[in-house]
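User: I'm curious whether this sequence folds into something compact or stays loose and floppy. Could you predict its structure so I can see for myself?
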Amino acid sequence: MTAFALPPLLVTEAVRAALLEDLGRAGDITTLATISESARARAVLAAREAGTIAGLELAREAFRQMDPRISFVSAAGDGVKVESGAAVATIEGPARAVLSAERVALNFLGRLSGVASLTARYVDEIVHTRAKVCDTRKTTPLLRTFEKHAVRCGGGANHRFGLDDAILIKDNHIAVAGGVRQALQAAKRFAGHLVKIEIEVDTLDQLREVLAEGGEIVLLDNMSLAELREAVRIGGGRAILEASGGVTLDTIAAIAETGVDLISVGALTHSARAMDLGLDIEIAK
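Assistant: Here's the prediction. I'll summarize afterward.
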């Protein structure tokens, strides 16, 4: 699956905010104190462990904003799997700017490559099935677009991006609305013709009720493997079925083998460990 292109404006603004946070009121006083203004540096951005790369445009933008004279040449690309020790990019330019941008670049690249790498592991576990791994809204505040990009880089699929691009009726909505039928009917009256509606169910009886109302996408919440298999049988292809709830690398294969269409995994974004990448620098005279 190809990752979508990150909107340049979002990249620019996110990197600008991160640099402002790091540089503070006085700039990089360590670098200013120790590195001459005329010094130049060449650096290799390298993977210190195997993984899947994501976030290169954010890293590139960090160096560009510090100094447009910095050259950033990618040796890999978003969505590419690399081995430990592989060069990801070469950076060359004014040493002060290279050093000052280093941490912001690595923070973005490490975080997003970690999400992509974890997603790839989940995808690999179910490659023998028809199911797709998808993300959730359990993302780092203000980084959702980038983390969902990383999920795509890892071979996963994106769920909704926010509360405004699809209707997902959860158990609490059902409780307040008065039931599955009432909630689904109200959503259909409200939604425009381009807005998808998904509804969460906890039981097979609720699934039957949704199908009777013409529901097209159903979230099967915390169901056992036996219940998931029965849900697939009951559904009979009439609706897209998504399994969710506590999915791990140890359990996802068995879940996929029940025949569900989608498996949403919050851990892709809320529990991914940053990939270890580093910048090895040399000062040129």
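Summary: The first helix runs from residue 8 to 23. The chain has a mean pLDDT of 96.
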